[in-house]
Design goal:
Layout lengths: L2 E8 L2 E15 L4 E7 L3 E6 L2 E5 L3 H15 L5 H4 L14
Antiparallel strand pairs: 1-2, 2-3, 3-4, 4-5
């Protein structure tokens, strides 16, 4: 049987996704961290058993942040905008 994660999104609503491979797993005094390959989302970062970001849907999150910022910022500021992006994956939308 395949390994699965179950996340409770709210009372009565749980999401479950299959894990194909675990690339990294560690527990620190502060949190549990895993980088895994999932069937529905591709590679994903999981902290404390909750998915934080995933390869196949990260564009939804980052495009919404970058597109608004791009339309409001003068072109000369585009090189410095990537410093404000949390994971760095949104930087590709700036250049």
């Amino acid at each position: 049987m395949a390994h699965r994660y179950h996340e409770m999104l709210e009372e009565g609503l749980t999401i479950s996704y299959q894990i194909k491979q675990v690339y990294f797993s560690a527990k620190t005094p502060f949190q549990e961290v895993e980088v895994v390959d999932t069937v529905p989302f591709g590679r994903a970062l999981i902290t404390d058993r909750l998915m934080q970001s995933a390869e196949n849907d990260e564009h939804v999150y980052h495009e919404s942040l970058v597109q608004v910022d791009s339309s409001l910022s003068p072109p000369r500021h585009h090189r410095h905008r990537s410093k404000r992006l949390s994971e760095g994956t949104g930087a590709r939308y700036c250049f």
